[in-house]
Amino acid sequence: MIIFNSMQKVNTFPLFSVAIKFYNHPEMMVRNAIRIIALTVFKLNDDKVNSLLQELPICSYFVNLACLFRDKILDLE
Hints:
The protein is mainly alpha-helical. The chain contains 4 helices and no strands. The radius of gyration is 14 Å and the shape is globular.
């Protein structure tokens, strides 16, 4: 069973919402844990979860992640 916080104006998925705040944490173990949580949520393949991932503020995670990848690639050059 997937638990959403529907008491707020915007539905949130608390586990994912809190976890993605640490996507750029300096500690590698924390970043790995966040990746595992994100991949597990993506693997759920639930309609409510999929629609939630497309809404703000959660979808900003993907923009931040893409910018992080860009910066890492530029550091390699």
